[in-house]
Amino acid sequence: MKLSELLKYDSIVIQCHDNPDADALASGYALLRYFESCDKAVRFIYRGRNQISKSNLLIMLKELGVPVTFEPDFNEKPDLLVTVDCQYGQRNVTATEAETIAVIDHHQVSGELPELSEVRSNIGSCSTIVWDMIRDEGKEYLIDSDRMLSTALYYGLYTDTSKLSEMSHPLDRDMADTLFVNKSVITEMSNSNITLSELKITGLAILHNEYDPINRTMIIQAEPCDPNILGVISDFAMETAEVDVCLAFYASENEVKFSVRSCIKEVHADELAEFVAEDYGGGGGHLFKAGGVLWPDKLMQLSDEDIPTISRYYVIQRIQDYFDKYDVIYAKTINIDTEGLPIFEKQPQVLGNVKLTDIFPVDTVVDIRTLEGDVTIKVEDDIYMMIGLEGEVYPIRKEKLERSYMLTNEPYDKSFEYDPTIKNIATGERRNILKYARGVISSGGVRVYAFMLDRHVKLFTAWDDEKYYSGNPGDYIAIREDDHHDLYIIRRRLFPKLYKEVES
Predict the structure, then answer these.
(1) In Å, how far from its chain's centre is CA 76?
(2) Closest Cα to residue 288, out of 230, 239, 245?
(3) Helices 170-178 and 147-160 meet at what angle, rounded to 10?
(4) Opening angle at CA 470, ends 215 and 169, nearest 5
(5) Any idea which of 5-14, 207-216, 284-293 has the lowest mean pLDDT?
(6) Closest CA to 25 of 160, 164, 179
(7) Alpha-carbon span 346 to 481, nearest angstrom
(8) Cut 0.90: pTM above it
(9) Which residues partner with 119 through β-bridges?
(10) Residue 88 to residues 55, 230, 336, 383: CA-CA distances in angstroms?
(11) Cα distance between residue 161 and residue 291, in whole Å
């Protein structure tokens, strides 16, 4: 759905869910500004039984000028009702009649959606979706020129991703990097985020933790609360010397929210969050901080118990399954016996390649942003960036590049779900990598030993022993014939495209 499709309606009402949070208020605020810029008659409301009372949200309404009104008895019938950060018909939003319904949300689809809908469940906040939709209409100036609106959108993402620590999609990161924010207001709202009752929830939850001394993992169940409290709980638990990994969660009838923390390189918090939520919700974030949500209707298929009991059992079991699942491989120190392993030769493939000094000068520290996450690296004269068949990027030294590939000097003309970008960390300047990419053809002759995995592995490569690459059963481990410590993982679907077995 495009926002311009909604301009044919005369009277428009934007409604966020009952007991609105910062993300609902921010996304509705931005949508209101868009419609106003198109000279539409529009109102922004919330309903339910309770008026906003949390200190941080009251500050948000006052300092950022969010023009939302509390309308518990609203009985008008607009031409168009747009629900933000929720879906029409859900239990957390009071039903409002309208000639036409539209939905903008980032939660899981929980029922039949109207024809006019934009639901992206992999995005961290509804604010991000509205920001992106406004940009698609060429009206980003509405946000760029309004610092209060920019700050509201930032705070919506900030709160829904536990202070940005649980962002999983690059679009969320792009918005956070782009907005011109009043940091003093963000600080003021953040410092007013916990009430005395929530402080009590935090203390009681920590007291009733479940600890696994073998995996040095703590699981904490809290009462339903503001999702930010879960981040507070898990961050506090990580101060404990014996805790390497923590998952804090609460269970309500509408959702089970959880927050994950890790302080060891062998456990990526974002991967653990995705694993816990697999098939039952969604999760993601960063290497050390992440989070997600589980959907009660799916969990209820597991047992007849109540949701808090089911969710506790489920989380404990999934954490144990995660630690049982993986073997860890350190390429620098492992010596794999290649006797009897088949040898494969790399087949010619047109890939992308960028010399980093063509984009930024030597010694510039940059972030390479991709759908798989961010890669931080310092620009050196002999470091290039490869772009794989599916848009994945990885660094390569000039010497290895020239041994393995032939430069075509032709433009690399491909697009992906999310085109990789590169940002100068010092200045914030961001550029699209593909604009600088040239084609390269794998020259053949590169030979590797390879075998198919029958278990899940975490591989720490020789060139990066801080971040692992995950391999699944059916994927391949490749070992360069000329360097037995140069190990890497190749996805099952890509292996036959890239390599052909050498006949003995």
Answers:
(1) 38
(2) 245
(3) 140
(4) 100
(5) 284-293
(6) 160
(7) 12
(8) no
(9) 105
(10) 28, 27, 56, 51
(11) 8
